[in-house]
Amino acid sequence: MNIMVENIVEALSEHLEQDQISINQTIRELHGKDESYHSISLPDVVVFPRSATDVSNIMKTASRLKVPVVPFGRGTSLEGHVIPYENGITIDFSLMDKILEIRENDLLVKVQPGVTRTQLNKELKKYGLFFSVDPGADATLGGMAATNASGTTTVKYGVMRDQVRDLEVVLADGTIMHTGNLAAKSASGFHLNGLFVGSEGTLGCFTELTLKVYGIPEFTTAARATFPTVKNAVEAVTSILQAGIPIARVELVDESSIRQVNHFSETDYAEKPTLFLEFHGNEAGLTQDVEFTQEIVKDHGCDDIQFETDNTARTKLWDARHNLAYAYIHGNVGKKMMVTDVCVPISELADAVIFARQELDAIGLTGGLTGHVGDGNFHALLMIDMNNPEEVLKAQNYNEKIVLYALERKGTCTGEHGVGVGKQKYQAAEHGEALRIMEKIKVALDPLNILNPNKIVKLESDGG
Amino acid sequence: MNIMVENIVEALSEHLEQDQISINQTIRELHGKDESYHSISLPDVVVFPRSATDVSNIMKTASRLKVPVVPFGRGTSLEGHVIPYENGITIDFSLMDKILEIRENDLLVKVQPGVTRTQLNKELKKYGLFFSVDPGADATLGGMAATNASGTTTVKYGVMRDQVRDLEVVLADGTIMHTGNLAAKSASGFHLNGLFVGSEGTLGCFTELTLKVYGIPEFTTAARATFPTVKNAVEAVTSILQAGIPIARVELVDESSIRQVNHFSETDYAEKPTLFLEFHGNEAGLTQDVEFTQEIVKDHGCDDIQFETDNTARTKLWDARHNLAYAYIHGNVGKKMMVTDVCVPISELADAVIFARQELDAIGLTGGLTGHVGDGNFHALLMIDMNNPEEVLKAQNYNEKIVLYALERKGTCTGEHGVGVGKQKYQAAEHGEALRIMEKIKVALDPLNILNPNKIVKLESDGG
């Protein structure tokens, strides 16, 4: 333990209990990576706050010592967001995992940042409510807010940012503030909720979140539809959206990915581009939506569509989609998954998916395409051997090609995974002059550059 | 014309045509007020840009001369947003009124800031599309984005901020940048769309907006329901929302306001608290929604509910709501309207409306209550004689009482009208430490404080 770490621990001990501070190697290793392929880097110290006051004291200490700080939920980020490349302090929010208040009449909940989405949904179910955002991982709500997470229901219910009514935030200097209020809308002051959501720990640490929740829909119908080509499938989605059908989920899984699922799960799904759909509403409305959707998909060459309304049958119908990442990961032991994450305007989606498929075939790596196609967001899942530099390079070049394709069409380099370190090199190309404004905001709010430094924006003179 | 104004005009003339610059007294007077009761103050010069380049040149000139700049749409703001209390240059966007692009497949439009919402909707109708945000006035879309406007459809479609996919913004120093992209979602960088929407001209001037539009609903049903008390009416709304009925509009008009409409329009609506409702969707779904709604409102004591589906009949059914402000203004010639605008958590709404009514009765001014009750946002419309200092003071005290009531219940001082100068005194109480962050952002983006100075945030050292 070098002298600097000793200083940090000593300073932290003034306000925290001994069991809230760890320099244990295993603990540090657990906080030195996320679920991505990005390289590992360990924090010097991991702290476990129990309250906003604890976090405020940690930030005051970090400011005084000019030590970098990384907030950490469950480490499920996919672009290296939580990896402390400058070392320093990692704040693990696992002890702040209480659901503080359920305001049924306001359709709001107040939670601590360490609550996970499944933990919240389990509790909400007792009230006939649910929280809508469903990224792949069982992430913490603090982490989901920090990365503006989204998922399969975004096409109907919106992204994480749309669900955040208020955040309690601890700023770089330890100040505790609130970004919003409990009203359903407000025209008062700058939109700090929106600014802090998606800031990836670079502007502040969240210590409390007030989130929108929804009544569990009266009626749910799921569907699975196969198409001769990806283009047919995507064009069917465009038509469904154009028709104003308030679809709750619409996911594409390509032919290769269905093949991977069949291979891994010993199933026999038709190996064709497949759409997985879900509809939420009242029974009569859904019946009409489903009829209309059937007509639309048939017009786009759909060769088979199956519907289910019963809960168990719906889950089974969607199995291939649910098992997709699992089938790739467990079907390619020893390899790491790299996931592209662009989002394009819907009108560009069919061509973008075809381009991504062709380029993937050209490089010859194992992988497939899936997407939240109602939003124009799709992923290529690539399985790569990290010890094979050629494969790594191929995958990186592929990712870059997909990003540049999306940016040329006024899309974004990341639809839902965030910037972290992986998408930082595209920030200038994507945002242009706006990146200067982001840098100015970062400097104004974190002048010492101690909050998750070098994520999203990279300041020239690094004070961290 | 004093020498300073001469200097400004001369400098502006380097880049603009003579007919784009006016120091005419009548023109200046038209830009010295909005639709509120706030006092008048004239700009020194009014300019009429035709392009982002024009606006950039204006901002460069203003920066060089350190002259305040106020962007101006149609002057329909309600809290003095566009009144140039520091004089200087007003940028009138009326020449930038083109609809630039309609991307049907993406459900997006690109417009210049001077396009009004009815102008846009007239054009969109040809494509079976509509733009959802409907504040009372036929405001410009640039102004609506600057104030984060909302209206009767917000309960279903969201506020202005929810519709903005990208803004072209001219910053204080003349830099032109974009805040977003055309993808339906993004996790890339800080959320500048959200920050600039609602910034009321204090962070930049909008020169182009890309906005979400919607397909005109297949089927629309309108309803009007009367209740014995305001409490019954509001509680019925809470139950409708709780039940997950995707209501598109739900407006409350109180007894006194219906009386005012009857008196002015020679109608004979039942003088009772009244809800005006609208449902958008497919026919079967709406039929079921309407049945369910009928049950709910009956449970809350509704004594009469009428439905209409035909377009003309629906408009007639809603007449009393549409004519409300008109009935007050034209029924009280010589008086000015002051409008309160708080928004509270839905669970607090019934009590808040009752409190507002009781306090209004207590001060004895003419006025009534109306509200976008699905959002918890309600207005008291007060008719005041601006030459009677006692009435003005009464109205101001009343407004303050309503604001403080809302803030105590974690609501906001303004649900949709914005801060301008009228709600500035409540910013500290509402935002606390967060106001310091807003100030830091303002200083970082507009260090000379020339962009609509002293609106939203008031900086201690005023460089404007």
From TrEMBL, chains A, B:
Swiss-Prot/TrEMBL cofactor(s): FAD
Alphabetic keyword roster: FAD, Flavoprotein, Oxidoreductase, Transit peptide
EC number: 1.1.2.4
Pfam family, one: FAD_binding_4
Domain of life of the organism encoding this protein: Bacteria
Gene3D superfamilies (alphabetical): 3.30.465.10, 3.30.70.2740, Vanillyl-alcohol Oxidase, Chain A, domain 4
InterPro entries: FAD-bd_oxidored_4_C, FAD-bd_PCMH, FAD-bd_PCMH-like_sf, FAD-bd_PCMH_sub2, FAD-linked_Oxase-like_C, Oxid_FAD_bind_N, Vanillyl_alc_oxidase_C-sub2
PROSITE patterns linked to this entry: FAD_PCMH
Family, per entry: Belongs to the FAD-binding oxidoreductase/transferase type 4 family.
Name the record gives this protein: D-lactate dehydrogenase (cytochrome)
Source organism of this protein record: Psychrobacillus faecigallinarum
Upper taxonomic lineage: Bacteria, Bacillati, Bacillota, Bacilli, Bacillales
